[in-house]
Design goal:
Chain lengths: 141, 141
DNA sequence: TTATTATTAGTAATAATTACTAATAAGGAA
DNA sequence: TTCCTTATTAGTAATTATTACTAATAATAA
């Protein structure tokens, strides 16, 4: 479970460092993503944040997601689905992705995965992550 | 390096099994993907196949890619880039993906990756794959 | 060879994301 | 506090990737 307060605190710091403004839109979008483990897409974030901030635009959500990603506070879940899914949990974990309904489940691990040695042959490694694709119980039966 | 002949042979068999027709479009699209290690996107496949088959349509390429994927002859490379990338190499390997230019490099491994035990909690596991994201030498400078 | 019907070419439509612009508001300076 | 600068936003238009539609074509089996 993510500590929302410390997440907002991190946003405050990162914004200051990057000369970016701490706007209510950024706070709400980050809050929303950090308070769920469903790895929502942009549209879902939009619908959810609209409940507390009715005039937010979808464009702002997309821009904010990109900003938060640039600041290293959230990241996109690698998938081959049409919509991007977002995650605010930076602890070591990977994802089970249902290829049928698109559900994304966390699989927590003791430590981050080491990249295969050969990786460094191709450039600077930023991140290594594991994807487990399958069919979730709900879709199965 | 993929053996194109055996790949086409597999297509022939799979098509027969699935009651699908062995069309020149399917052969050419599969040939194209199997003969490169660049993991092309649909547009690139289209441009390339057009050279030998000038009247093929982009729609056919998309449909064919989906069919070949259904037959288990190719698969999409998981990424968070706007375009889907395709791979015909089914041997154990993962990918280095440059987050800047989108280049995809193969990292070959001795065996397929075992899914974490927790994976099975969420459903039936179909595939496990590792992604290494970074910045390739070319983009680095 | 012929008949059946899966598949295709060409194009229109959709879905997700990004770009544009005038208005707004965050945050530093006075 | 108040004012200024300019990053950010809302609203909407545009773009990009992908999918759907339809009449024409061609792969396979009889």
């Amino acid at each position: 479970m993510i500590n929302i307060e410390s997440k907002i605190e991190a946003l405050k710091q990162k914004c200051a460092e990057a000369n970016m403004r701490l706007t209510p839109q950024r706070i709400e979008v980050l809050k929303m993503i950090a308070s769920t483990d469903t790895h929502p897409d942009a549209e879902t974030v939009y619908e959810s944040v609209k409940e507390v901030m009715p005039f937010i635009s979808l464009d702002t959500v997309y821009r904010t997601l990109a900003s938060l990603e640039d600041l290293g506070l959230i990241f996109k879940v690698d998938n081959e689905l049409p919509k991007s899914r977002y995650d605010a949990d930076l602890s070591p974990h990977c994802h089970f992705i249902c290829v049928k309904c698109g559900a994304v489940y966390d699989i927590f691990m003791d430590s981050h995965i080491e990249p295969p040695k050969e990786s460094f042959k191709y450039g600077e490694v930023l991140q290594t992550n594991l994807q487990v694709k399958g069919i979730c119980h709900k879709c199965k039966g």
